[in-house]
Specification:
Number of domains: 1
Order of helices and strands: HHHH
Largest sheet: none
Radius of gyration: 18 Å
Helix content: 55-70%
Number of helices: 4
Structural class: mainly alpha
Distance between the termini: 20 Å
Oligomer: single chain
Number of strands: 0
């Protein structure tokens, strides 16, 4: 799966679909795309909002920028959760395994699972 196909699948075809399977390439293309877009956008957005606020003490621009960044992140977090759940289904694991990232060092085990190859054959989460 290419980057374009991954974006089309995650943002259009299966935006909020938590059923089925996702390949490693679908998950990683979308996850890396999200990271490469969101980190600079959030950094620049919050920095500009803070600079403008502290130079003018005007909440208008600050509020609009913060609301835009919140909306942007909420728009992308839903397909990120859904592609993560489908990727875990591909490993024959529950999508709730994502919650392990809330634990200290849980993100490491989450990354290891996401890097593992597909479990072949039919599994519990098959459509």
């Amino acid at each position: 799966m290419t980057l374009g196909e991954s974006l089309k699948t995650c943002l259009k075809d299966k935006y909020c679909c938590f059923k089925g399977r996702a390949t490693r390439s679908e998950f990683w293309f979308f996850a890396i795309f999200y990271i490469l877009i969101s980190v600079p956008l959030n950094f620049i957005g919050y920095s500009l909002a803070e600079l403008y606020f502290f130079s003018t003490y005007d909440y208008t621009y600050y509020t609009v920028m913060i609301l835009f960044l919140i909306a942007f992140n909420l728009f992308f977090i839903i397909p990120l959760w859904s592609v993560s759940a489908r990727r875990l289904h591909d490993r024959n694991m529950s999508g709730w395994f994502q919650l392990i990232t809330l634990l200290p060092f849980g993100f490491i085990s989450y990354l290891i699972v996401m890097l593992l190859p597909t479990k072949p054959g039919k599994n519990y989460f098959e459509d």
